[in-house]
Structures
1.
Amino acid sequence: MTEEFLQFIWKHKLFDDQNLFSTGGDRVEVVNVGKQNKDAGPDFFDARIKINNVMWAGNVEVHIKSSYWYQHNHQQNSSYDNVILHVVYEADADVFIGETRKLPCLILKFDSCLLQNYNQLMHSTQWISCYGEINLVEKFFVRNWLDRMILERLERKSADVKKMLKLNKNSWEETFYQIIARYFGMKVNADPFQQLAQVLPLKILARQKNSLLQLEALLFGQAGMLNDSVDDAYYKNLQQEYLFLADKYELKPLPSHRWKWLRLRPGNFPTIRIAQLAALIHKSSSLFSKILDCVNYKDIQHLFEIRVSDYWKSHYQFGIESKSQCKQLGKMTINSIVINSVVPIVFCYGEINEDEEMKEKALKLLEEIPEEKNSIIDKWKECGVEVKSSWYSQALLQLKVNYCDEYRCLQCEFGNRIIRMKNYQEYGK
């Protein structure tokens, strides 16, 4: 038994509400259970409870044992003075507010299968607690809950964008550039790429935008990759350009050791990703404004169809020649960049400017992009969950990390419905 479970029973009125009596013998009628409070203070606010036909309005506190009122020192906290009903699993002590007012106490009675179902989920050792039962949840409720998950995910990412926007003095272009740079690094080099964007402001790159060589010199130089002695004409040209530009703009490079190379495919080497980022900046001006003007995903995809400079077509690292290849951004890479950078900032832009169409545009983009390919999504498919697009894969990632991994079944629509199933015990065997 947990207090959280009792709160769940009270919140959803899953208790036997016929012929309710307090431990003192008073008739109790629950008119409104109140609004659950997740912060400090009583568990439910603004409840409406009839006790002996007298309507009381106030708060409700839930405990496993009534004596926990004193264990938790509620008698010393004035915010509990307006509690009108103490809801418990076991009444082992009388509780008084002040010196004279005895707090009415109600023992919560419910179907034992609810607790059995809950404990089965809580003690599951499967990939997710409802691994074998999630297919019992009706599709209507699945879609509704995933709607909630995708909004939660975008709101969380939007909060991160807002923090960056504040640091960048409300410059959307600068913020977008930093977010884009981060996702050029993918998971392995995300942090150094973001740091690179922070030590090399977009306004500096914009001044040299017409020269791809100078853009590359600035990016590679600030990445700390031009400090060696390499017998290569292109490398020496970059060094010379960077020395001039670093002095002009008073730049200090990042330490080169921050970049990770191990277990990366050559196409994902930071050198190639930096060359691609330089090509994107060279091709596009006011990229964020162009993103906002795009009608659909194909328009956005076109903006990221860039080609590296001639040198990088035949190199993965400085001074080491390889077979010539175009090395443009692949479809999966573009999808990832749009999902993780374009969609959150467009959604955030809609939030800040109270533009519902822009927020809908962000959601529509996710529906146009194919689902992501990873082990978590594969497992969801094994469970029988339909994954039609990145809208679904993003929602399911949010659900797995923030609910399933934390055993938050009581806050999950799937868990809620499975706990209430009378036949869940049969399926769970």
2.
Amino acid sequence: MINVVEFFRNLPKKKCQQCGNAMHEKADCYGNVCDECDHPAR
């Protein structure tokens, strides 16, 4: 059985649905768009 910490450590990086770049995940964020693509000026 795999250690829970190792399981989460080995998950692939989350990617933005619009540009495909790796996202910096936040503690309470379930979004799928990065900060650059989600900027209100765009």
3.
Amino acid sequence: MLLIFKSKIFRVFIIILTLIFVLVFLKRDVIFQEGNPIPLAIAITKLTFQDVEMVRVWQNPDQYIVKQGNYEPFIKHMDDEGEKYIGEFEGGILFENEKGNVTSEIGIRSFTKYYDLIDAH
């Protein structure tokens, strides 16, 4: 058992693990700015590696990730829900119901350099 602690591989592993923890601690405000970063990371991974244009964020069904500037999949989704696209405004998209009333002001913000986060709540 004592030989494990004297091994160079074990020491390197401990040093790397310590560096990771220090970096996460120092950058915690950025990493956790949206709360738990894991659901957003999973959504971005799906958007990047799967053949999809929009991904619903796990654990938050009112958030979607799209590639920056590509809002067509979300507009189609809202059209399927019965909301008619009116247009874009600074920071979001407007939709109306069948009666012609503006019912939804959907906020959009840049999440990273390549992805936008749509808040549909």
4.
Amino acid sequence: MPDLILADLSGEIAANVRRALAEDIGSGDLTAQLIPEERQARARVITREPAVIAGLAWVDEVFRQIDPRVAVHWEVADGERVDADKLLFSLEGPARALLSGERSALNFLQTLSAVATRCRRYADLVEGTPVRLLDTRKTLPGLRLAQKYAVTCGGCHNHRIGLFDAFLIKENHIAACGGIAAAVAAARHIAPGKPVEVEVEDLEELDQALAAGADIVMLDELSLDDMHTAVRRTAGRAKLEASGGINDGNLRQIAETGVDYISLGTLTKDIKAVDLSMRLQL
């Protein structure tokens, strides 16, 4: 599946921000009213730890929706590696708007940068191999496209976006359909032209998926030896995706088996927000 690009997400970004501001500000920022309405201010946002940055457009949209008089000046770009204490961006405009937008803006930036940072770490581990690291649907509800965009900022790639853009036939689907061949045939009938991927648990099921004409075969927790065998046996007839039981210790070895893809829920699921800090200057 193609990777998301920022140009595809303008409506999604605006909607993400509207929900975030409604959740945080609600009927109005009470504490910001302590500051005179006409007071102008500046602010600087730094990262307290090394990171790969993602989410600039979400920050811009936060302040655009709160008060378009706020000017955002970026010192970094999406996908850029930064060291601790790096200035990420500065702000100038009405003090109330800067303070009201702070938390929502930083929430987006710290979360999406966490995804990009995690992805860059894993991409570095397989550098020099042709494998593509793929994300999954294990994303925060309401932020799937944002997180999947952040995945690309970290040098990894997007799997299917949801349940609507590709088939992924797993054990329960196979059982309900009466076998791999029947499931693949039904998929071709339901949505011709959509990618059909089949999850298999052993080499016998791999053979069945290949015979059925699957576009992609997901090797679910196969041993390294079986992955090597699967690559030889498939011989380019389908793309192969390794999944399950993958970690820092075995990722490189799996990449070197010759599989085309490795999918990792950890790219979006097991993340820790990047530590950011904003300081206001009145």
